[in-house]
Amino acid sequence: MTDPAPSQLGALVRHVRAALEAAGKPDAALDARLLVEHFTGTSRTEAVTDPHRAVTPAQVDDIISALARRLADEPLHRILGARDFYGMTLSLSRETLEPRPDTEALVDLVLPSVRAFADTTGSCRVLDMGTGTGAIVLALLSQEPRAQALATDISVDALATARANADMLGVGDRLQTCASHWFDAIDERFDVIVSNPPYIPSRDIALLAPEVRNYDPLAALDGGEDGLDAYRAIAEGCVSRLADSGVIAVEIGHDQEADVVSIFEDQGLRHEQSARDLGGVMRAMLFSLANA
Ligand SMILES: C[S@@+](CC[C@H](N)C(=O)[O-])C[C@H]1O[C@@H](n2cnc3c(N)ncnc32)[C@H](O)[C@@H]1O
């Protein structure tokens, strides 16, 4: 029989950590701390300065249920219902990808273009395709108050989450949302188009960690047979949706740089810049209309 969960803050953190370590979970200490803080509404400092603080039976129950979910491979941030990205806290939902720190490289790559348009014309019209939680577009709107954006996704659930996140961050009045299969429902032109599309080859989905395979939505991961389906659709469609001097930036998988360059060049776009993520992996690429 397992020991009953302790009802004091410090002991509870140790109990959760020990259970996660015993199951071989990476980041057991961090996950234990974040789970306990979340469900008790306490801070890291309180766990250190007030370890004997009483935790209510209802909070202990919540933490034990959350621990069981984590032991069953559910990612920590899905359990918490939110994840930080580019200094924002974003709510997650069933059909949204958990935004990844790697994607911040895409924001960093494209933000100077958004600012340059705003400096030149007083605004910048941005399209984020496959917006998920809204991570990319909301980072851009938060960083550049003169930008306006349209966020699209094939998932209506994701669009509702992006809208809620935009409202929560106070940028909702500068964001429109629209359900669309890539460019199908889009007629306008944009100064900046950005996308982190699904790019995992279908046969590799089964090889992903259970945290990803079982909890991130398949539509956010599966890039078709060679992982490049979305890039072909996006490269083909963007030519008639970019304004003069417009740019398009996409996130890519670790070995897709050459293929993605060739897909965009085949449509007459020019490769301007690439950016690596924090792990040094080539992660984001920016293209312009070659004749602009
Ligand atoms: C890798 S996720 C990126 C989510 C978010 N932009 C981010 O970076 O965290 C890809 C997104 O593309 C959306 N998507 C998949 N197929 C699509 C399609 N045919 N048209 C539009 N969006 C699509 C998925 O629903 C998902 O939200």
How are the secondary structure elements laid out?
Blueprint: H1 9-22, H2 28-40, H3 44-49, H4 57-71, H5 76-80, E1 82-85, E2 88-91, H6 104-121, E3 124-129, H7 135-143, E4 147-153, H8 156-169, E5 175-179, E6 190-195, H9 210-213, H10 218-221, H11 229-238, E7 242-251, H12 257-266, E8 269-276, E9 282-289
Parallel strand pairs: 3-4, 3-6, 4-5, 6-7
Antiparallel strand pairs: 1-2, 7-9, 8-9
Q: What can you see in these coordinates?
A:
- The protein is an alpha/beta fold and 292 residues long.
- 42% of the residues lie in helices and 20% in strands.
- The chain has 2 domains: 9-72, Orthogonal Bundle (Helicase, Ruva Protein, domain 3); 93-289, Vaccinia Virus protein VP39 (Rossmann fold).
- It is built from 12 helices and 9 strands.
- The model has no long low-confidence stretch (mean pLDDT 96).
- It binds S-adenosylmethionine (SAM).
- S-adenosylmethionine binds at residues 97, 99, 103, 129-133, 135-136, 152-155, 158, 181-182, 196-198, 219-220.
- It is an enzyme of class 2 (transferase).
Describe the structure concisely for a colleague.
With 292 residues, the chain is α/β, with parallel strands linked by helices. The chain has helices at residues 9-22, 28-40, 44-49, 57-71, 76-80, 104-121, 135-143, 156-169, 210-213, 218-221, 229-238, 257-266, and strands at residues 82-85, 88-91, 124-129, 147-153, 175-179, 190-195, 242-251, 269-276, 282-289. The model has no long low-confidence stretch (mean pLDDT 96).
